[in-house]
Amino acid sequence: MRPDDLHALPEGLPVPVDDGACRHLPGLTLPPIELPSTGGGTVRLDRPGARFTIIYCYPRTGLPDAEPPGGLAAWDAIPGMRGCTPQACAYRDHHAELRALGAEVFGLSTQDTEYQREMTGRLGLPVPVLSDARLAFTRALRLPTETVAGQVLIRRLTLLAEAGRIAEVFYPVFPPDADAGRVADWLRART
């Protein structure tokens, strides 16, 4: 068992700063790439099923019985890495509200689908989580990444697309557990 609580953000985490790595994204069309989904099959994000498509990208969710890559202290020292479980749980808790506002919500990380399925089951997520383990989506949009202990991870950001085109990007996202509420506020202002 880990010595920390995956569901809580510890105090004193370094706050990520906007380095401009997402400035090119607003206005781009979501790429026609099929991604494996925890809901089964594949999903193409360029084919909107709702007016708005929300894609919260996160580095990687932790396991209750395993340290993060590089160890807990090193992981917590990287700005923006900690908080994937609280962010996912916030999307779970806001899911009905986001759907009512006309949004389809997806999580996305570079972890494989099997790893993601364990997490979605354990956390009771109603949101499909997509695997970009091959980095096709990440490279197509030139999303910012971080390499930790040999693993390429997407930095935490949220893409807000309308009719398949990126209308807004939240980057960096901090604190992660406030992201879903901020997305809901953005949707309310648009509708």
Number of helices: 5
User: In CATH terms, what is the fold-level topology?
Assistant: Glutaredoxin
Q: If you average the pLDDT, what whole number results?
A: 95
Give the overall silhouette: globular
Which class in CATH terms?
Alpha Beta
Beta-strand segment tally: 9
| Helical residue percent band | 25-40%
Task: Describe what you observe in this structure.
The chain is α/β, with parallel strands linked by helices. It contains five helices and nine strands, in the order βββααβαβαββββα. The strands form three sheets. It has a five-stranded mixed β-sheet with strand order 5-4-3-8-9. A two-stranded antiparallel ribbon has the order 1-2. A hairpin with a 2-residue loop joins strand 6 and strand 7. Helix 2 runs parallel beside helix 5.
Layout of strands and helices, then pairs:
Elements: E1 34-36, E2 42-44, E3 52-57, H1 72-77, H2 84-100, E4 103-109, H3 113-123, E5 129-131, H4 136-141, E6 145-148, E7 151-154, E8 157-162, E9 165-170, H5 179-190
Parallel strand pairs: 3-4, 4-5
Antiparallel strand pairs: 1-2, 3-8, 6-7, 8-9
Brief synopsis:
The protein is an alpha/beta fold and 191 residues long.
Keywords, separated by commas or semicolons:
191 residues, alpha/beta, Glutaredoxin, two-stranded antiparallel ribbon, 9 strands, 22% strand, globular
